[in-house]
Amino acid sequence: MFQKISAIDATTGSTAKQIETLSSTVTQLVTEVASHKESLRVVATEIQVLQKVTKTLKEEVDECKRYIEVLSNVVPGISDNLEDAVDIAHRLAQRRKDGSHRSIIILFALRRFRDIVWQADSNSP
């Protein structure tokens, strides 16, 4: 009987140590999960910011493509070089409610391209 009680006591002591180890491991894991949740929150916020930036950049690229299309219509022969030729292009004033076209201001990187576009527009009917 004494041996059985002694064996049960040893088993109980061993089980208590294992429970302490498991408890500290669970506490550590809970802390790590909380840390990862915060990291995921930060990453999610950064993703939202980057999505907004991407959307803005896409809109700007689309706008630039529209300007290039306008120039390609005026001077079809230089459409391959327009990305290198145009430094800045933007429309004047707010969008018109009647749908009429707004004027465009273009800053050319090279005077040669400006002269070609100017000459082509001057020759237009």
List the helices and strands and how they pair.
Elements: H1 2-74, H2 82-85, E1 86-91, E2 104-108, H3 111-122
Antiparallel strand pairs: 1-2
What does this structure look like?
This protein is mostly helical. It has one domain. The chain is 71% helix and 9% strand. The chain contains three helices and two strands, in the order H-H-E-E-H. Strands 1-2 form a two-stranded antiparallel sheet. The protein starts with a helix and ends with a helix. The model has no long low-confidence stretch (mean pLDDT 83).
User: How do the strands line up in the largest sheet?
Assistant: 1-2
Strand content: 5-15%
Unreliable residue stretches? none
Helix and strand composition category: mainly alpha
- Strand segment tally: 2
Oligomer: single chain
Could you tell me the radius of gyration in angstroms?
Answer: 35 Å
Largest sheet: 2 strands, antiparallel
Name the shape in a single word.
rod-shaped
SSE order, one letter for each helix or strand: HHEEH
Please report the distance between the alpha carbons of the first and last residues.
116 Å
The percentage helix is over 70%
How would you sum up this structure in a few lines?
This protein is mainly alpha-helical.
What key attributes describe this structure?
125 residues; mainly alpha; two-stranded antiparallel ribbon; single chain; 9% strand
